[in-house]
Amino acid sequence: MKRLVVLGGGESGVGTAILGKKEGYDVFVSDMGKIKDKYRDVLNQYEIKWEDEKHTEELILNADVVMKSPGIPDKAPLVKKLLENGISVISEIEFAYPFTNAKTIGITGSNGKTTTTMLTYHLLKEGGLNVGLGGNIGKSFAWQVAEENYDYYVLELSSFQLDGIINYKPDIAILTNISPDHLDRYEYKYENYIASKFRITMNQTEDDFFIYDADDEAISAWLQNNKTKAQLIPFSLLQTFENGAFIKNNTMDIIINNEEFEMKTADISLEGKHNMKNAMAATSVAQLMKIRKQTIRESLSNFQGVEHRLEKVLKIQNVQYINDSKATNVNATFFALDSMTVPTVWIVGGVDKGNDYSELMPLVREKVKAIICLGLDNKKIIDAFSDVVDMMVEVDNMRDAVNTSKHLAEKGDAVLLSPACASFDLFQNYEDRGNQFKAAVKNL
């Protein structure tokens, strides 16, 4: 009996443990932190052995294969030891995919991947396909492979999940864009992070498809210097293609294998240039899957968007409050500021992953009237923008941030929470941060 050790007792870890047990592995789950009660109960129900708040090496180093949760870095001493002992360390996606015959659509990118994943899932589900949603969002892919029977999966894949694949290949891959993010995990080398993202296409064959942003410099440079066997489907706001997706005369136009789909951009529910790209990527998948054009049109016009991503919360005294807590890097905040059409009070800050704020400078000059720093260490933000805006305030909790923003905003302005940073200094995660913002706004 092969031994599967799972490092991390969260959603992906527990899902992998259940699938491993079902497939006849001897399974052991080990978590350095505390395993949540709901996951402990599941592990006990399946009679899976587990430990938390420690890693017992003799119970781990005897593994045939180890699945590590995406949050554990490759540099962790235990992971290094496993690799030195020649033990395969893989991600949940790599472990689960041999146990399903379903086709997968894998979606990665520094920004836009959640919206693109949700929209792709919405299009395929509305189109009548038997489709599951997983990866970085929703229920763990492995758990669904163990308990569900889908024909297709739409998977949001982080670079950390892609780092742990060996043979996995999506039938359709989407790369939404690349901008410097998580560089702390890639030795602060941008090229390492770029290479990690492109792992999504490394095992693809001539029968597979690779959908990508042709306007993105990092992606274009990689494709000039490297090869993928997959059939290429570019999308762009700036150029047109004989085979690909583009915007022309306020119309989204998608031509794949001589099949054309057109829709007025004004009829698409998502707003902003970056969302047109997300819509082109998702619609390209729907076209490859032969979803009816009328269904695609209806789905694009009724899609609700993603929570914590440019989410309009309330309008109070003619000031629009917007929750973009999911913007955990500079590039995401760039899109948010770019989409603002009125003077903006910007709430920013948190745990900085090596941010360079200079690219935001023209947008801040043009659109931002005041900055509220919400973090334990705001020095970089203050150094970057103190000469650019009239008003800068430091706070250390969400209630103060929102109350301050109310005083700084005038009729017709907007208040935008778009932190450009991770949330772990003051919040559990970006959802907690966004929910606290929404609660504080509702209490104004």
Automatic annotation (TrEMBL):
Keywords: ATP-binding, Cell cycle, Cell division, Cell shape, Cell wall biogenesis/degradation, Cytoplasm, Ligase, Nucleotide-binding, Peptidoglycan synthesis. Its main location: cytoplasm. Belongs to the MurCDEF family. This is UDP-N-acetylmuramoylalanine--D-glutamate ligase. The gene is murD. One of its GO terms (molecular function) is ATP binding. Cell wall formation. Catalyzes the addition of glutamate to the nucleotide precursor UDP-N-acetylmuramoyl-L-alanine (UMA). Residues 107-285 form the Mur ligase central domain. It is found in: Cytoplasm. One of its GO terms (biological process) is peptidoglycan biosynthetic process. It catalyses: UDP-N-acetyl-alpha-D-muramoyl-L-alanine + D-glutamate + ATP = UDP-N-acetyl-alpha-D-muramoyl-L-alanyl-D-glutamate + ADP + phosphate + H(+).
